[in-house]
Amino acid sequence: MSTSVYSRYRAAFAQALAGALGVPAADIEPQVKPAEPAHGDLSFATFPLAKAQKKAPPAIAAQLAQTLQVPGLEVKAVGPYVNARFLPLPFTQEIIDGVRKAGLAYGSDAEDGKGKTVVIDYSSPNIAKPIGFHHIRTTFLGHCIANLYRALGWRVEGINYLGDWGKQFGLVAVGFQEFGKEELREDMAHLVQVYVQANKRAGEDPAFDEKAREFFRRMEAGDPEAMKLWNQFRETSLKGFKRVYARMGIDFEHIEGESRYQGKMDAVIDQIAKKPGVKESQGAIIVDMPYADGEPPVLLKKNDGSTLYATRDLAAAEDRHARFNFDKSLYVVAQDQALHFRQVFRTLKEMGQPWADKCVHVPFGRIHGMSTRKGQVVELDQVLDEAKERVLQRVKENIAQGNLETADADALAEQIGLGAIVFGDLKHNRASDYTFDWDEVTSLEGHTGPYLQYAHARCANVLRRGGGVPTAYDPALLTLPEEQALVRELMRLPDTVKAAAEQYEPSLVARLLLDVAAAYSRYYTAGNKDRDKRILVEGNDAVRAARLALTDATRITLAAGLTLLGIPTPENM
Q1: C-beta of residue 519 within 8 angstroms of C-beta of residue 486
Q2: Residues 476-496 pLDDT 10s
Q3: What strand order describes the sheet that includes 32-34?
Q4: For 358-367, 417-426, 436-445, 560-569, which range has the lowest pLDDT when averaged over its residues?
Q5: pLDDT for 131 beyond 70
Q6: How remote is the C-alpha of 120 from its chain's centroid?
Q7: Residue 569 contacts by C-beta under 8 Å, 6 or more apart in sequence?
């Protein structure tokens, strides 16, 4: 397992402190924290030592600081704290060279998860329905989490677990018989219209609703005619889904659905019957285990014999463990389903499955305030279209003003529009609700995807104007406060990637990229105020080369992070 530059210096500081105090380094490492930037990079508080040493914390800190000698670190006492600052050399060169050597793999650690497998269940739309805007969070979060684990060397088995079984399909089938047009059987938009009409009719007509239920029962019984129609409509939906996923740059290792477990659920129910047991309740079969007051039981079969989500998820969990022998199995599904997954995982544990604790629900909050110029949004495609349309207007304005050159304005607008929507979601803490705002997400300023894409394009433009990436540079020339601050932001990506994967929290990477972009902006702006601080400084080729090397490392860091988030990285904006 490779160690980041930050982690290596932190460990060295902790080891030196431990040696001076005569205690194991493992006891000290958790106490080494980031310092206030004005006072250093690492900090160790001496308050816990005061009682044992019978000294004031500032005195302990002063004595420790005089004792410690750590290569690459300047150690000083600041009141009750022992602080360490990275010396400009070799630190600056280690970061820049490390970034440039790794390229787009910067932040990755192929050894971290070597030999481990994670299964990730995400996106999961229902067939005969469009991928709705409400799928945005499970889709983008799941895709990014999969990217994070791949970057850390895990074998990722991403599963798009389609809702392709259940009464809703019965509605499509009987609805098509009544409202459908045979020549539009393979038209996804027509299937959606049929479903909407059928769902409305079922709410008004109990007999029609019963016909839908009966069709689903025929499916569960394996009726050839019903299964033929189901398969035709499923394939039509898949074609529509794949087009949208391709537009977003998302691919799955597996696209499979609840139908995979048709015919396998009785075996799971029989297994549950042995342990913990099943019982009948109002004609339905439920898991026989204690429930909290007011908690609904885990239903395995309805009184008409049809199965439910819990039955299929239990069968799927067993199947996935048998197929992949996973170290983790993640379900990126809305917070609303928290009870469902608690009960599914608890049932697996009651069944005696030793891997039940490896199953994890990764919940997320809701999005409020989404609407478009055309009204309330249903399809994710519509959101991407509008994002592109809004951005394209700005792209064309910049071309007309001579501020932008591009061979394909339409393709650039697509990239920026996608970046706006993806980052607009992933910058938020996963568990939080947020309110969608078109002006905010598509802005080139503030905490937005286009702002980060622009920062990346600005770096690329500076490199072009500077004659390209320098092959050699002198890191000792990067002494400006703005340069050292920027290097410290670049340093953070590897540890942030690990933390984001461990916490299933892409927003950690998103926020770091904002910090990198802001630090580069301050650096760039400093050159506008002071000619000697310009990146493309005149009359000093050595300084110019060093600053271009730092710009190159910044560009790579932004590109690596944006790629993990699933955001395109245009080189000209």
Answers
A1: yes
A2: 999 999 999 999 999 999 999
A3: 32-34, 42-45, 81-86, 73-78
A4: 436-445
A5: yes
A6: 11
A7: 453, 456, 558, 559, 562, 563
Where on the phi/psi map is residue 504: left (φ > 0), alpha (ψ -120 to 50), or beta? Answer: left
φ, ψ for residue 315, nearest 5 deg: -65, -40
Nearest to 561 by CA among 34, 41, 151: 151
Name the strand (E) or helix (H) holding 169.
Answer: helix 167-179
Six-digit token string for 321: 């463990």
Closest alpha carbon to 174 in 210, 204, 130, 221? 210
**Cβ contact 570:477 at 8 Å:** no
Rounded Cα distance between 174 and 194, Å, is: 9
Burial class of 70 by CB neighbour count within 10 A (0 to 12, 13 to 18, 19+)? middle
Q: Rounded to whole angstroms, what are the CA distances from 184 to 50, 196, 236?
A: 80, 16, 10
pLDDT digits (tens, 9 = 90+) for 15-38: 999 999 999 999 999 999 999 999
What's the pLDDT band for 373 if we cut at 50, 70, 90? very low
Q: Mapping DSSP to helix (H, G, I), strand (E, B) and coil, where does residue 242 land?
A: helix
Q: In angstroms, rounded to a whole number, what is the distance separating the alpha carbons of residues 142 and 253?
A: 13
Judge whether 493 and 106 are in contact, CB under 8 Å: yes
Sign of CA pseudo-dihedral 477, 481, 486, 492: positive
Pair 329, 359: CB distance under 8 Å: yes
Q: How many CA atoms within 13 Å lie on the side-chain side of 226?
A: 21
- Please state the rounded mean pLDDT for residues 189-205: 91
Domains of the chain: 5-86 (3.30.1360.70), 166-261 (no CATH), 380-565 (1.10.730.10)
| 224-247 helix and 380-400 helix, angle to the nearest 10 degrees | 20
Going by the DSSP 8-state scheme, the letter that residue 307 receives in this structure is B
User: From CA 285, how far away is CA 450, in angstroms rounded?
Assistant: 52
81: helix, strand or coil: strand
Amino acid, single-letter form, for residue 386? E
Paired tokens of 129: 């329905």
Q: Alpha-carbon distance 63 to 514, whole Å? A: 39
Pull the structure tokens for residue 269: 């129910």
199-211: buried (b, 16+ CB within 10 Å) or exposed (e) per residue?
Answer: bebbeeeeebbeb
Tell me if the pTM is above 0.90: yes
- For the residues 39-46, what does the mean pLDDT come to? 98
Q: What is the CA radius of gyration of the chain?
A: 28
User: How far is Cα 103 from Cα 97, in angstroms, rounded to an integer?
Assistant: 10
Q: What angle do CA 478, 568, 468 make, to 5 degrees?
A: 40
How far is the C-alpha of 148 from the C-alpha of 498, rounded, in Å? 8
Binned at pLDDT 50, 70 and 90, residue 1 comes out as: low
